[in-house]
Backbone:
């Protein structure tokens, strides 16, 4: 088995990063400026957009999770005790890139959501992955995405491609300790007082791998803080991985 293949051992816990609230702002400004310059208004998750669950261009749709794995009643398995099969069942889209020997495996990475911003009914954060292994490895393209609610149910997210404000294309090589990021936007039907709210997001770095797990909170927030307002029918947009440098 190569390091890029699925590792069925339990993944490491997500990191506890320092709170960097201002990091997403410049990306959001660039994103909204690009939309305005092109004469395109930011999407607010219309009924037409929500009618399907798109995947990246070269991938077939991800099957609906098996109802047996997503019970509506009865005790729920805690997020941190889900096995790889159940984590994969949460995915609404699969990763755009296939795993290669150079690809970072799940055990090579720590992941967290960094920064939070809002504009025109949209929310923005960054999925930041750090190479915690002793080898250089790479991430590439858009990660696969899924989520689980506080109720223990699979979130039927509507996932689409986000704008790549960095302009980066191709692999991002990560030496030990280096980081890459994917801008995450969510909009449309946001979670409220009467709806389920995300407890955990999963991100698949490469096809064939079990996904990384990320708490539904911004890194640095206390454990008792309310999760971000991604709900059962929110529209989530993810950008390609790009190099990430802390300011």
Residues:
């Amino acid at each position: 088995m190569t390091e890029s293949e699925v590792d069925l051992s339990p993944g490491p816990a997500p990191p506890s990063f320092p709170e960097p609230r201002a990091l997403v702002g410049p990306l959001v400004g660039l994103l909204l400026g690009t939309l305005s310059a092109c004469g395109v208004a930011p999407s607010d998750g219309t009924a037409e957009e929500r009618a399907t669950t798109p995947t990246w261009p070269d991938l077939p749709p991800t099957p609906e999770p098996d109802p047996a794995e997503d019970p509506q009643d009865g005790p729920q398995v805690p997020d941190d005790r889900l096995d790889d099969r159940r984590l994969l069942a949460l995915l609404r889209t699969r990763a755009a890139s296939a795993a290669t020997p150079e690809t970072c495996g799940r055990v090579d990475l720590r992941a967290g959501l960094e920064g939070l911003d809002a504009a025109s009914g949209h929310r923005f954060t960054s999925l930041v992955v750090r190479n915690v292994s002793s080898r250089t490895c790479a991430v590439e393209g858009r990660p696969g995405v899924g989520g689980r609610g506080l109720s223990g149910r699979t979130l039927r997210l509507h996932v689409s491609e986000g704008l790549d404000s960095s302009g980066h294309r191709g692999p991002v090589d990560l030496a030990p300790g280096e980081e890459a990021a994917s801008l995450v936007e969510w909009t449309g039907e946001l979670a409220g007082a009467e709806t389920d709210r995300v407890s955990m997001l999963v991100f698949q770095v490469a096809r064939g791998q079990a996904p990384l797990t990320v708490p539904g909170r911004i890194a640095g927030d206390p454990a008792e803080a309310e999760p971000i307002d991604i709900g059962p029918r929110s529209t989530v947009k993810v950008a390609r991985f790009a190099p990430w440098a802390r300011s």
User: Anything to note?
Assistant: The chain has one domain: 25-31+49-56+78-244. The helical segments are 25-37, 84-90.
